Amino acid sequence: MAATGEEQQGTKAFYVSTPIYYVNDAPHLGHAYTTVAGDVLTRWHRQRGEKVWYLTGTDEHGQKIMRTAEAHGVTPQEWCDKLVEEAWKPLWEHLEIANDDFIRTTEKRHTDRVQEFVQDLYDKGEIYRGGYEGPYCVGCEEYKTPGELLDGEGEYAGLKLCPIHKTPVEMLKEENYFFKLSEYGPKLLEFYEANPGFVQPESARNEVLSFVRQGLNDLSISRSTFDWGVRVPWDDNHVIYVWIDALLNYATAVGYGADEQKFAGTWPADVHLVGKDILRFHAVIWPAMLMANGLPLPGKVFANGWLMVGGEKMSKSNLTGIKPQDLTDHFGVDAYRWYFLRAIQYGQDGSFSWEDFTHRYTSELANDFGNLASRVGAMTVKYFDGDLPAAPAAGPAEQVIVDGLAHATAEADRRIGDELDFAGGIAAVFDFIKKVNLYLTEQEPWKVAKAAIPGAADAAGSPEAQARLATILYTAAEALRAVAVLLHPVMPATSQQLWTSLGAEPALGPLADQRIAEAAEWGRLPAGARVTKGAILFPRLEDPKTD
Ligand code: ME8
């Protein structure tokens, strides 16, 4: 859990959420993808000096969870408790996710408020009783329209399948309560028009616009055929539809109806991170629910694309068998956090492969970044006994690095902090790393050292060469100081190792307190900092498992 800066108490927090995930199984790479993205985004904003609130959690009601628990011979609550404690929370800890809260939809702080919210809508005449019959996918917990279903083949021949789960839908006929969603189409379109950044990326916005323009149906918001859910407060025979229950987590977790001060300081969410599978729930149903209840709407719904392995979407119903821990065992946690955001444009589909990960690890992390850090550490220890020298002879070559850093910082800040273009922001930092490597290659400090160190080549070291050597090493170390700051949100542990080996902490304070806005201020790392060789940031990879 991360602390929020005391200095900004009283201002509204930058509030980011992930979906709350279904706990019918352990988390997989797809869940971790969205959650790591949210973590990087919130860490970035923390380092901008903002007050931040990062929420994740679990979606525990509904038929899907109920059936899974039944199949395992335990109650749904027992099942959820076990999965949350043994699988979900441990993975987020393992991946260094600094969420400020973890909401579970079975918690009383949530269920009480969900009842109040729905009762409010009922009292306002937004909910009525009616009937519905249609194909239902339990995997999605959603009624489907006949037109979107697929024809089954093989074992499913003759059946209609859900287009996402590729499993048969069930015909459901229910007397339910309905939310008058159909009345919100024009208001939503007006809202999207006035807030062009509300749904991102552009492809997601287009999908939502065309969906809403077709006209919306009222939404069934209760179920009476099973009871694993929050009771409809005015009718004991119904539970609230799991999606209505789930969406409300974003409000109940930050004090809706319970803690006015907290709610005022957090609401509304600035960014709801979602996968594109659940875009409509967040960009259509959710804002309509909030409009109906007179609450301010979120700033942005950003839909990430599908993560695939060999062209297959990774999900619980279509498992590929690679667990997040398999990858972190091999590549390490920080490389894992970095890879998916670096390799795949956020918002677009992307494929993962061991080969690509291995290639990027070796070329960008180990060779470009890791080698730079170890070369600078080793040379500072060798030539200056680890006492970082000042830079008395800075010239045009150094100015290129100073300018390069200013550019990389501005790019990364805009792309990661504002646009959620993680790949672009990380690339800006790694381009800068390449520049620093090129600088060292061109300046050849190891050659300058021969002329600089007394007795090394010539009898006496030349003062000019000494000044050059000092300048080169200071420049590279100062560049790395900034790299540690800029990569801290992405790779917290590795950046900390670097920060420590640069001896930065005594003068500059903890890495997490470093501000993005100051990252490009040249000369922050003081001469005299105690530089050590430090551990290898990215060790050589073991041979991959062959099974
Ligand atoms: O839908 N690629 O939960 P869920 C990228 N409980 N992201 C993926 C992914 C993939 N292959 N697979 C999953 C639910 N995700 C509801 C949410 S919110 C009020 C309720 C990520 O466990 C992505 O963020 O099925 C997706 O939207 C989410 O996990 C779905 O998780």
Textual characterization of the structure:
This protein is an alpha/beta fold and 547 residues long. The protein has helices at 29-47, 63-71, 76-94, 108-123, 185-194, 202-213, 242-247, 249-252, 260-266, 279-292, 324-331, 333-343, 354-384, 396-418, 422-443, 445-452, 463-487, 492-501, 505-508, 516-519, and strands spanning 14-22, 52-59, 101-104, 127-137, 142-143, 150-151, 160-161, 170-179, 199-200, 219-220, 222-223, 231-232, 235-240, 271-275, 301-304, 307-309, 312-313, 350-352. The strands form five sheets. The chain has a six-stranded parallel sheet with strand order 3-2-1-14-15-9, with helices on both faces. A hairpin with a 2-residue loop joins strand 12 and strand 13. Helix 12 (333-343) packs across helix 15 (422-443), helix 13 crosses helix 15 (422-443) and helix 15 packs antiparallel against helix 17. Bound molecules: ligand ME8. The site of ligand ME8 has 22 residues, from strand 1, helix 1, helix 7 and strand 14.
Across the major sheet, the strand order is 3-2-1-14-15-9
What profile does the largest beta sheet have? 6 strands, parallel
Present as ligands are: ligand ME8
CATH topology of one domain: Isoleucyl-tRNA Synthetase, Domain 1
CATH top level of one domain is Mainly Alpha
CA(first)-CA(last) distance:
37 Å
Helix content: 40-55%
Secondary-structure-derived class: alpha/beta
The tally of beta strands, per DSSP, is 18
Calculate Rg over CA atoms.
27 Å
CATH architecture of one domain: Orthogonal Bundle
Helix count equals 20
User: Residue ranges: pLDDT <50 for 5 or more in a row?
Assistant: 1-7
Note the overall shape.
Answer: elongated
Average predicted local confidence, pLDDT? 94
CATH homologous superfamily descriptor of one domain: Isoleucyl-tRNA Synthetase, Domain 1
Strand content: 5-15%
